[in-house]
Every structure is written in structure tokens, then in C-alpha cells.
């Protein structure tokens, strides 16, 4: 497999340079995966617009989906990034491991969401009826369902980009789930 270098600010389009500057101000760095999107003149802006679009899901709920999807897709970059973001959203290490496994024994509603995100991802959208019914029984709406599936797609894009490019992880690296739960 060819090695993908992470493009520097000087190697990307003027539009992407402005986005890099904004990311640098907001985050203190430009994550390698975002920089990789900038190999395209349009993908980084399009992705960030999609990822930051309004949703009916809370920040915590988004992290539930991001962690479950990234585990199914075995994306170490996104697992590492969303472990850090999950902690910033108040999840403990143990809760993050549960969410990665597609469950949340600590919260019935988040459990239904984690199970749905895992099931949708594993089954490529052919969601099991019982998982869907559990999601609605937990208090989620049809709007929440569509927002969740949109987020599954959003996260899958990043998972696939990292799986293809294998750019270096620039977050504390998440342990494999099996090693962490033994």
C-alpha cells in the first residue's frame, strides 16, 4: 500500500488553508485526518459542514454513535479521537468501552442508541426490527432515527478515509477493545 503523507498548510488549496487556520485557532492543531481530507479542494469543507450541521442528537449522543460506528469499522484513528472527545463530554473510560461495544448499561436511552448505531453499521442499514423498536421505546423519534443514520454515514466516511490512507493517529491511541475489557 502506498503511504499517504499528511499535507501541510502550504500543500493545500487557499480555501483549505483558511480552514486549517480556523482549526488551528479552535483546536490548537489540525488533526491529521482533517488534513487528509484537504487532499481534495472541496472535501474538507464539505465534511466539516456535514459533521457540524444541526441535529436532534446531543453532543453526548453523537459520541455514542461515533464510538459504536468506529468500533464496528475498526478505525483506530476515529476510536482514538472519539475516546478523547467522549471524555470531554463526560463519559468515563469504562463507559467509553461499553459504547464502543454498542451498549450502555449505565443509561437505558443511550443503550438503545448505541445498539442502533452498531446494528445499522454492521447490517449496512438493514436494521433489525427489535433494535429499531427498542430505539423508539427508549423515547427516540423518527427524526432522531434519520439523524442517527446520517451520523453513521458521516462517521463511516472518516473511518474509510483513515482505513485507506492510514495517516498517523495524533490523539492518545485507544486500546483494542478486547485488550481493554480483559
Question: How are the elements arranged and paired?
Answer:
Layout: H1 14-27, H2 32-37, H3 43-51, H4 59-72, H5 76-88, H6 93-100, H7 108-122, H8 129-137, H9 142-165, H10 177-181
Briefly, what is this?
This protein is mostly helical and 182 residues long. It has helices at 14-27, 32-37, 43-51, 59-72, 76-88, 93-100, 108-122, 129-137, 142-165, 177-181. The chain has two domains: 9-51, no CATH class; 59-181, Up-down Bundle (AhpD-like), CATH 1.20.1290.
Could you explain how this protein is built, in words?
- This protein has about 180 residues and is mostly helical.
- It folds into two domains: about 10-50, no CATH class; about 60-180, AhpD-like, CATH 1.20.1290.
- Helix content is about 65%, strand content about 0%.
- It contains ten helices and no strands.
- Helix 4 crosses helix 9 and helix 7 (about 110-120) packs antiparallel against helix 8.
- The radius of gyration is 17 Å and the shape is globular.
- The two termini are about 30 Å apart.
Amino acid at each position: 500500500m502506498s503511504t499517504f503523507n499528511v499535507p501541510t498548510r502550504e500543500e493545500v488549496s487557499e480555501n483549505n488553508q483558511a480552514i486549517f487556520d480556523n482549526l488551528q485557532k479552535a483546536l490548537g492543531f489540525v488533526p491529521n485526518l482533517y488534513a487528509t481530507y484537504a487532499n481534495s479542494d472541496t472535501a474538507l469543507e464539505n465534511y466539516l459542514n456535514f459533521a457540524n450541521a444541526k441535529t436532534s442528537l446531543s453532543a453526548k449522543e453523537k459520541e455514542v454513535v461515533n464510538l459504536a460506528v468506529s468500533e464496528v469499522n475498526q478505525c483506530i484513528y476515529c476510536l482514538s479521537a472519539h475516546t478523547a472527545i467522549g471524555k470531554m463530554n463526560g463519559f468515563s473510560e469504562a463507559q467509553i468501552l461499553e459504547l464502543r461495544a454498542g451498549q450502555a448499561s449505565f443509561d437505558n436511552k443511550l443503550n438503545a442508541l448505541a445498539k442502533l448505531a452498531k446494528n445499522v453499521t454492521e447490517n449496512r442499514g438493514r436494521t433489525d426490527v427489535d433494535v429499531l423498536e427498542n430505539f423508539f421505546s427508549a423515547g427516540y423519534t423518527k427524526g432522531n432515527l434519520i439523524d442517527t443514520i446520517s451520523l453513521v454515514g458521516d462517521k463511516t466516511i472518516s473511518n474509510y478515509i483513515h482505513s485507506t490512507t492510514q495517516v498517523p493517529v495524533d490523539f492518545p491511541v485507544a486500546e483494542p477493545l478486547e485488550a481493554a475489557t480483559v
